[in-house]
Amino acid sequence: MKKLLNTLYITQPDTYLSLDGDNIVLSRERERIGRLPLHNLESIVAFGYTGASPALMGYCAERNISISFLTMNGRFLARVIGKSRGNVVLRKQQYRVSDNEEGSAAIAKNFIVGKVYNHKWILERMTRDYPLRINVSDFKKVSGVLSLLIKEIRECDDLERLRGLEGQAATSYYNLFDNMILQQKDDFIFKGRSRRPPLDNVNAMLSFAYTLLANDMTSALEGVGLDAYVGFLHRDRPGRASLALDAMEELRGVYADRFVLSLINKKGVHGDDFLKKENGAVIMTDEARKNFLKAWQNKKQEKITHPFLGEKISWGLVPHVQASLLARFLRNDFDEYPPFLWK
């Protein structure tokens, strides 16, 4: 159980939620494990829940406290809300900003700042941890380029220009990605990003990790009442969760890329875990995919200190916290959206 930004996150499995006066009660196997006042909560997010009492759902609905239910893997199931006044106001504001190029750019550039900043510190961390195994000069040079691009991005108010700057930063970063692969070099070579389809073992894992992260972010956005399909940087396209793709940008490197690099460098994955199809596409075997998912879930349990909140949370809650911060910005609680800046 963790309370952040007036949201209660229930991460213990098999937890039943009920009402006792003005308090939420958490029980497991009929044993009470927690109790918290409801009067200062805005929302409840329950992972892997056993159930919730009608009395609790009715109480929360009357007081505009949303309850979101997700699987333990983070897949969004349902959201219980009362009268839709709060949700409608938030989504209408989201749609207004999305339709406005200047307003969209103001949010989009913070997503990109977070992404480039985190890429820069991934490179800096490599120079600190492995100075004898990489060309430190090359890494420092690209880090300097990313610092200059961050300044340009902060001053940019044009979406097309932002996309161009993001592309420049991504190219510089990916040029060094192969150098961060320190083990199993015969089986894991990165020559560049290939997406549809992935053409090598590394890209197969990156694509899978990005898909998992996009699903986690979609659940987080739906959980706070935002429309995951209406974005600011990625424009509307039928069937594409554009806002999820926007919001996950700042987490791609620090969350997904580092996870893939860790699997390779710690030999949690091997060359025979992949298959090459006739069209050149590379996919993971069923067993490798199961092991990947298990490692991904373990990663989500690791604790970090959130850079904006200053509180310890699990990696798995980061998308939910960022979604809450974005919703608060759209409600004018903040002057600007605070991206996730890892160091």
TrEMBL record:
Cofactor requirement: Mg(2+); Mn(2+)
EC numbers for this chain: 3.1.-.-
Coiled-coil regions listed: none
Keyword Chloroplast found: no
Superkingdom of origin: Bacteria
Descriptive protein name: CRISPR-associated endonuclease Cas1
Source organism per UniProt: Sporolactobacillus shoreae
Complexes and interactors: Homodimer, forms a heterotetramer with a Cas2 homodimer.
Top EC group: hydrolase
Any one GO molecular function term: DNA binding
Lineage: Bacteria, Bacillati, Bacillota, Bacilli, Bacillales
Binding site for Mn(2+): E166, H234, E249
GO biological process: defense response to virus; maintenance of CRISPR repeat elements
UniProt entry tagged with the keyword Zinc-finger: no
Function: CRISPR (clustered regularly interspaced short palindromic repeat), is an adaptive immune system that provides protection against mobile genetic elements (viruses, transposable elements and conjugative plasmids). CRISPR clusters contain spacers, sequences complementary to antecedent mobile elements, and target invading nucleic acids. CRISPR clusters are transcribed and processed into CRISPR RNA (crRNA). Acts as a dsDNA endonuclease. Involved in the integration of spacer DNA into the CRISPR cassette.
Family indicated by similarity: Belongs to the CRISPR-associated endonuclease Cas1 family.
Keywords noted in UniProt: Antiviral defense, DNA-binding, Endonuclease, Hydrolase, Magnesium, Manganese, Metal-binding, Nuclease
